[in-house]
Amino acid sequence: MSRLPPAALAALALLAARPAAAQPAPGAPPPPARELLTLADALRLARENQPQLRQARAGTLAAAARAAEARAPLLPQVGASAAYTRSTTNVRSGYPALSAPRDETLSLGASASQLLWDFGQTSGRWSAARAGAEAQRWSERAALLQAIQGARSAFFAARAARDLVKVARETLSNQEAHLRQIQGFVDVGRNPAIDLAQVRTDRANAEVQLINAENGYDTARAQLNLAMGLERSTDYDVADDTLPPVDGEDATTDQLLPEALRARPDVAALELQRTAQEATLAAVQGGYLPSLGLSGAVRNDGGLPLTGAAWNWSATATLSWNLFQGGLTSAQVDETRANLASTDAQLAGLRQQVRLDVEQARLAVRSAKATVRAAGEALGNARERLRLAEGRYQAGAGSVIELGDSQVALTSAGAQAVQAEYDLSAARAQLLRALGRVPAP
Fold this sequence. Notes:
CATH architecture: Up-down Bundle
Number of helices: 9
Number of domains: 1
Shape: elongated
Oligomer: single chain
Strand content: 5-15%
Order of helices and strands: HEHHEEEEHHEHHEEHH
Number of strands: 8
Strand order of the largest sheet: 2-5-7-8
Largest sheet: 4 strands, antiparallel
Distance between the termini: 71 Å
């Protein structure tokens, strides 16, 4: 290639220099700042609005009401009654009819009954209902833990999508700078036109990547809205929040497992369900034995006025014993024992699942931390590679293919770094859920 004249070299130097970003016109109002959503905001909104939490809360209230219903037969049952009757007695012994005077009666009464003892049938059902209500409260806490995990995961996914938009914008900015530079080289005849066609293709591909990244960011924010239980627009940005290191994330599974088994609400809920099954078994076994009750009543039946009315009372003690019901009680006992065995099996399986959850989350955190370090090193090396490729191309020692490959490597390294940061935050969130740690409101 012939040596370029000094004027052309000066023009190339000006074209190679990247212009500064365009500044707003003097006096122009700054663009309105969008709302910034922090991780704490996302968790608070999820607590307040997530429909699954409202449903779980309603289930807790219903379970408490069922416990009160089961207690009712243990308390005195009191009732009152009143009846007023007005009648006539018509007598026809010929023609015309003779009418008798009208009669008026008023009946008043009150009754009370109390179950004295039924060998634990009713009290056992009450104990089972109370254990079920407590289990539902733990299930509500499990729903809260799941909602927090969902909000965290969606927030970090949106943050990663936002960072991928930044990577795509940086790539597009670099490709536009390469386009201006190569356009100048081609215009002065230093480089062939095929270089210009290549960089225009790269620039168009970078624009497509930016469009896809922006669409992915919008989609991620829509999913975050769903995780928070909100119906709102996606016209906001997520903050740079991350999860700090989790206390004990470098410990072994055997060291973390006792905490998880104590704190996991799903484990506590299932253990209480087992307690409810045991109370139910005691209640149905009481069906083999009699029940003792006491009832009493006072009553007045008389005419009007009540000045001469007489009151009467009665008291009754009852002993009832279902000697044979076609095998109903024994079948209920067998069913309850089978349910208890099923609950024991579920509890054993859940304990194994908790261990697996802790193991997977702990290993994911360890792997993600190593990946973040490696991805950061790869990103730094890719930036240096692109800088050297740009220098070599400007000096005429490199090719447009080398320049494009370096840019692709930088874009890939940037996306990999974003993914590594997301994986670390997501792994720490998963570890918090596996350990049953619910953040304070």
